[in-house]
Amino acid sequence: MSADPKLSVTSPLSMAKAASLADALDCGPDACSATQAMLTSKRIEAADAYEGMEAYYERGWTDGMPVVPPTPARVAAMLDAANLAPETVVGSVTTRENLVITAEKLAINAVMAGALPEYMPVIAAAMRAMTDPLHNFHSHTATLSGAIQVTIVNGPVRKRLGINSQDGVFGPGWRANATIGRALRLTIRNVGRSVHGEFDRSAFSHPGRYSMCFGENEEDSPWPTLAEDAGLAKGTDAVTVYASMWQIPISCPSRDPKVLLERIGVGSREINEGASKASDAAETVVNSMFADTRRFLFVMGCEHLRVLQDAGLSKAQVREALFRHMTDPAGAAPPMPVRDADAIMIASVRGPAMPWTWYFRPFYSSAPVTLPVQAT
Question: pTM for the complete prediction?
Answer without folding.
Answer: 0.90
